[in-house]
Amino acid sequence: MGISVSVLWYIGFSVFTIVQFSYTTLYANSLSNREQLWSDMSTLWPDAWLPKLALLHTIQESEEKNLSTQNRSINLLEDILHQQPNLKSERKLLARIYRKAGQNTNALRHYKYILSTEEPDNTFILEAASFYDQLSLKWEAEKARQRIKSQNSL
């Protein structure tokens, strides 16, 4: 009786050890791939905006800058800004990604929104002015440049 209990204990402990080692390995693997980790977290909590923001920054830090990552970044930013509309740097990033993706109408809408509701720095105003010039919106570009001159004169 004592031998069979001992054998069962060793078998049970071995199975428990293997299962724990497997879970630890899977957890370590998920932590090593940050994009997958944040993607899983944002899927797990779809109403939370912080995992989406972390996923967005992870995507932006990656070297892969193709159209699918731009579209994924746009979708994430739209979700984040829908939940947290006061995030200024993310709104600027969305305008830049729209511009890079060739979505000029959306980029124009966001550049105008930022310039009308915020006090952006001069580099962003110049960026908006050059975008307006690119779209042949000379009046808006000149208006943005005059805004810099009026800020500097104060």
Question: What this model shows, in words?
Answer:
- By secondary structure, the chain is mainly α.
- It has a domain at 86-154: Alpha Horseshoe (Serine Threonine Protein Phosphatase 5, Tetratricopeptide repeat).
- The chain has helices at residues 2-32, 34-44, 50-61, 67-83, 88-101, 104-117, 122-134, 138-153.
- The model has no long low-confidence stretch (mean pLDDT 87).
Largest sheet: none
Write down the Rg: 25 Å
DSSP strand content = under 5%
Q: Class of one domain in CATH?
A: Mainly Alpha
Shape: rod-shaped
Low-confidence parts: none
Give the tally of β-strands: 0
SSE string, helices as H and strands as E:
HHHHHHHH
- The CATH architecture classification of one domain is Alpha Horseshoe
Q: Could you tell me the CATH topology label of one domain.
A: Serine Threonine Protein Phosphatase 5, Tetratricopeptide repeat
From the helix content, strand content and strand pairing, which structural class follows?
A: mainly alpha
Mean pLDDT: 87
Tally of alpha and pi helices: 8
**Helicity level:** over 70%
- Tell me the span between the first and last alpha carbons: 93 Å
